[in-house]
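stage 2 :: seqdesign
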């Protein structure tokens, strides 16, 4: 039998370390909460099918997009994140939408949750949206499951990491490691006796820049985080090919200056196509279903 947890831990050793709290604090400065319509969040809540008025725990809540939307639906929301910067943006987001009922605090996956008042069967539904970059997947799933009386909902990548576009890398001859994180979660859940359900969310990303150099710097990070070891010479050659590819695919941005999905002004240039990121939405009932 496959040991999905062991395989998960092995694959983590080959990856760049995920952003720590300080990293997310820096990233939070790029959000100003004048978000455009958030199709991903709407799809997440549609699939989660949370009943208005239910209690919800949102782990890794980020800027609070889901937490605020749930609170607006009358849900009693408890939210946690390990980044002070993200929690600050959640507070701004809640205030902007007239929401004052979210109980938000700083906590990580690795913390002892009971120290923060997070107890077994505390809420109806527990969610973790795009926040499952954890060293111990089985432990994270156990923690989330124990909190929820009814069900849990998470999202994980279906291919390469979201900051890596395998189609762009393929176009410049760089193979991207496709880890399909959601399969590990599905396997862990199935071996624990749950019956996980998988759906998919497709979100688009519009990359905008003020110069070719900015675009090259931004997309070079895909090369550095693709999961495929490259020598200095191979990396340099890949960057040259990337620069040529960008020359072909960067165009003037007709929406330059308008707020993007994070509320920041769009750049002068953009790609000629939107990038698409696929997420696996995994849900499972935390209690056995009654036989019919």
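stage 2 :: out
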């Amino acid at each position: 039998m496959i040991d999905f947890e062991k395989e998960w831990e092995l694959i983590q050793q080959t990856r760049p370390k995920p952003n720590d709290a300080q990293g997310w604090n820096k990233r939070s400065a790029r959000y100003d909460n004048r978000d455009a319509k958030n199709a991903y969040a709407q799809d997440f809540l549609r699939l989660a099918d949370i009943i208005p008025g239910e209690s919800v725990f949102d782990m890794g809540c980020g800027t609070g997009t889901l937490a605020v939307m749930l609170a607006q639906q009358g849900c009693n929301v408890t939210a946690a994140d390990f980044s002070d910067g993200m929690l600050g943006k959640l507070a701004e987001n809640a205030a902007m939408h007239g929401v004052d009922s979210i109980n938000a605090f700083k906590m990580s996956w690795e913390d002892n949750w009971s120290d923060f008042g997070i107890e077994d069967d505390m809420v109806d539904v527990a969610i973790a949206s795009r926040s499952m970059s954890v060293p111990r997947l089985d432990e994270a799933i156990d923690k989330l499951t124990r909190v929820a009386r009814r069900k849990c909902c998470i999202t994980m990548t279906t291919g390469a990491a979201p900051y890596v576009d395998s189609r762009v890398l393929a176009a410049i001859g760089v193979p991207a490691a496709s880890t399909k994180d959601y399969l590990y979660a599905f396997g862990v859940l199935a071996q624990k006796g749950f019956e996980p359900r998988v759906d998919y969310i497709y979100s688009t990303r519009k990359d905008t820049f003020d110069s070719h150099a900015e675009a090259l710097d931004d997309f070079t990070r895909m090369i550095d985080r693709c999961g495929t070891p490259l020598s200095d010479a191979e990396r340099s050659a890949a960057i040259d090919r990337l620069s040529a590819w960008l020359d072909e695919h960067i165009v003037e941005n007709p929406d330059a200056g308008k707020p993007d999905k994070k509320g920041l002004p769009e750049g002068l240039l953009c790609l000629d196509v939107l990038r698409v990121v696929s997420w696996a939405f995994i849900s499972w009932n935390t209690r056995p279903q009654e036989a019919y």
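stage 3 :: structure notes
- The first strand starts at residue 55 and ends at 59.
- Residues 32-36 have pLDDT under 50 and may be disordered.
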